[in-house]
Design goal:
mainly alpha; elongated
C-alpha cells in the first residue's frame, strides 16, 4: 500500500463504532487494559492498527493456539541452546568449577 494512503488509527477520529458486550466482561477487560495504561477504546484501536499493519488478525485464532505457542517457544529455546553451544565451541569451553569461580558462587 502507498505510504501516503496507509491507514493510521492515530489520525482523525470522525467515524464511530458501536458494539454490545456483557457488562461484566467489559469491566474485567477494562481493568486488564487499565493495568497496562490503556482504555478499552485505545486497546481496540491498537488491535485495528495491528490488523492493518499485518493484513489480518494479529494473533492465531484456532483451537490449537496453545499448542502453536508451545511449539514456537520450544523452537526458540532450541535455537538459543544451539547458539550457546556454537558460542562455547568458538570461544572455548569453561568447566563447571571455573564457571562457579567466574560467577563468584559456590556449589
Amino acid at each position: 500500500m502507498d505510504a501516503s494512503k496507509k491507514s493510521n488509527v492515530t489520525g482523525n477520529k470522525t467515524g464511530t463504532f458501536q458494539m454490545r458486550i456483557n457488562p461484566v466482561v467489559k469491566r474485567e477487560v477494562e481493568k486488564i487494559y487499565a493495568e497496562q495504561g490503556f482504555t478499552l477504546t485505545e486497546a481496540i484501536n491498537m488491535l485495528i492498527q495491528q490488523s492493518l499493519n499485518i493484513g489480518g488478525l494479529p494473533f492465531l485464532v484456532s483451537a490449537e493456539n496453545r499448542e502453536h505457542i508451545k511449539k514456537k517457544a520450544i523452537a526458540k529455546l532450541i535455537d538459543e541452546i544451539e547458539a550457546g553451544w556454537d558460542s562455547a565451541r568458538m570461544e572455548g569451553w569453561v568447566s563447571e568449577d571455573d564457571a562457579y569461580k567466574l560467577l563468584g558462587v559456590s556449589k
